[in-house]
């Protein structure tokens, strides 16, 4: 099972400024230049192009709820056994690749082998990026493999077929608007991890195969200058130049979705350093509910202050309890994390009943719409 992580302290730096007018002028100049160099995403949060009430209505109109049902074209392809190294796993890989090639996204396959309790197994992380040359990435992620059980075929509808479908839906619905942003400095990147599940028992070596491999690879892979080349096909550099950055350093924030799809989900923020992103999810959830754009069951749980719903609000919505998941290898390397996982796992977790019958399609649509608005707002998409 996934384990408990201890929170790590924030690191703060302080700048001592003398009274020298000359030095003060220099510092002010450097500060001004630094402000000019903030991420595109941060600038857009100050002056967002999206999302007005009209924009939100437009984003909601992009929904095709039938695609997110358990027989729908977006969710159904993931509702099969897909243990790493099996035919079903490869079938899902091929589905992801063909889907994003059709959308004209850059598709990267991170193929590798690793030793498991059942011998050496093949794995393949699928990374898709709208604009691989953008120097900054908003990352949404989920794992597409399912857990091995000897006595039954495990579907893993919440774990994590639904999160994968939510990511695909975000890409499909926003793709026409993302096409207009191909020269932006920030782009959307989706990571579908293989090998999250333990084959036998959760441990440092029997779990997180894909995320451990990709985080280590990206930590040692450098890109040069402002027009960074795509991450795939690049050789790691042992001695980077002064203006080089690792691929990990291109990530603005890494948002991981897991164990979603049942209607009774409540999620607490477990990473205070990304509280501003969490707050946006809470605000978006509230805006959508007051506009009657979310399902009735979750709208009924949200009060006039925005408390309730899927995403818990403010300090009452913070939990120091951290769950081991695919974000861990990235967090250990300093990547900002938002972990979207219910601290109280669904009752069907790692049971044969985690199948299509466990899923409430309206809940799937709710999460798809919330993240559609979040991405549009973060990237400042013009609708």
TrEMBL record:
GO biological process: proteolysis
UniProt KW keywords: Acyltransferase, Hydrolase, Metal-binding, Protease, Transferase, Zinc
Domain Peptidase M28, residue spans: 125-373
SUPFAM superfamilies (UniProt xref): Zn-dependent exopeptidases (SSF53187)
Enzyme Commission number, as recorded: 3.4.-.-
Enzyme type, top EC level: hydrolase
Gene Ontology molecular function, alphabetical: glutaminyl-peptide cyclotransferase activity; peptidase activity; zinc ion binding
Pfam family membership, one: Peptidase_M28
Family: Belongs to the peptidase M28 family.
PANTHER family (alphabetical): GLUTAMINYL-PEPTIDE CYCLOTRANSFERASE, GLUTAMINYL-PEPTIDE CYCLOTRANSFERASE-RELATED
Protein name: Peptide hydrolase
Species of origin: Spizellomyces punctatus (strain DAOM BR117)
């Amino acid at each position: 099972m996934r384990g408990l992580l201890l929170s790590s302290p924030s690191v703060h730096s302080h700048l001592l400024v003398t009274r020298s007018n000359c030095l003060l002028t220099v510092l002010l100049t450097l500060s001004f230049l630094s402000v000019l160099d903030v991420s595109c995403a941060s600038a857009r949060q100050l002056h967002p192009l999206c999302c007005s009430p009209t924009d939100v209505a437009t984003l909601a109109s992009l929904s095709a709820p039938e695609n997110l049902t358990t027989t729908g074209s977006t969710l159904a392809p993931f509702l099969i056994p897909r243990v790493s190294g099996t035919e079903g796993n490869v079938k899902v890989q091929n589905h992801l690749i063909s889907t994003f090639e059709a959308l004209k996204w850059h598709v990267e396959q991170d193929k590798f082998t690793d030793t498991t309790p059942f011998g050496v197994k093949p794995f393949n992380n699928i990374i898709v990026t709208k604009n691989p040359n953008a120097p900054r990435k908003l990352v949404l992620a989920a794992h597409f493999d399912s857990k091995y059980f000897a006595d039954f075929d495990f579907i893993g509808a919440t774990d994590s077929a639904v999160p994968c479908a939510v990511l695909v839906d975000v890409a499909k619905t926003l793709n026409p608007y993302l096409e207009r942003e191909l020269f932006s400095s920030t782009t959307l990147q989706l990571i579908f991890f293989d090998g999250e599940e333990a084959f036998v028992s959760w441990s440092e070596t029997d779990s997180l195969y894909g995320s451990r491999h990709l985080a280590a690879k990206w930590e040692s892979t450098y890109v040069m200058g402002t027009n960074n080349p795509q991450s795939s096909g690049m050789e790691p550099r042992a001695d980077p130049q002064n203006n080089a950055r690792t691929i990990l350093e291109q990530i603005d924030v890494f948002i991981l979705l897991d164990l979603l799809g049942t209607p009774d989900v409540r999620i607490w923020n477990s990473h205070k350093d990304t509280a501003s992103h969490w707050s946006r999810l809470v605000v978006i959830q509230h805006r959508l509910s007051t506009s009657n754009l979310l399902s009735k069951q979750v709208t009924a749980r949200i009060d006039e202050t925005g408390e309730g719903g899927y995403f818990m609000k403010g300090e009452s919505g913070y939990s120091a309890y951290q769950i081991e998941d695919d974000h861990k290898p990235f967090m250990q390397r300093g990547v900002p994390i938002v972990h979207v996982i219910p601290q109280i796992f669904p009752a069907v977790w790692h049971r044969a009943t985690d199948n299509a019958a466990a899923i409430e399609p309206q809940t799937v649509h709710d999460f798809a719409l919330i993240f559609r608005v979040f991405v549009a707002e973060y990237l400042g998409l013009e609708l």
